[in-house]
Sequence to fold (129 residues):
Amino acid sequence: MKKLRDLGFTQVLVDEAQSASELEILGLIGNAKQLVLVGDTKQLSQTTSYEIQGSSSLFERLVNIDSDLPLREKFCVRLDTQFRIHPQIWNSANKLFYDNKILTQIKPISLRNKFLDNEKPILFVDIKG
Fold:
């Protein structure tokens, strides 16, 4: 059985990169010619802090590079549209974390559920037990 380090990837894509430490990322890239980090600095960041890198991940530091630097313009792409969350649920997160800059492409559908209202897609149920 081959070990991961012996496979020799040419490209590595790390999803949720804001949660990965540099040591975890370095362990993946090996001899890769291209590294793609995908993540959202507004979501959960790494949970472990290493002395050599501090409390922010490599991804967070790259994204927060001074916007005047050519490196950020060349390598960082910020997406402006979300496709997964119901618009009325998304509105709160968009206001709180993204300054209303993220669009949504979700079209509210009929929920066909007698407990949920299409206009208010969030339901809180108090459970005492």
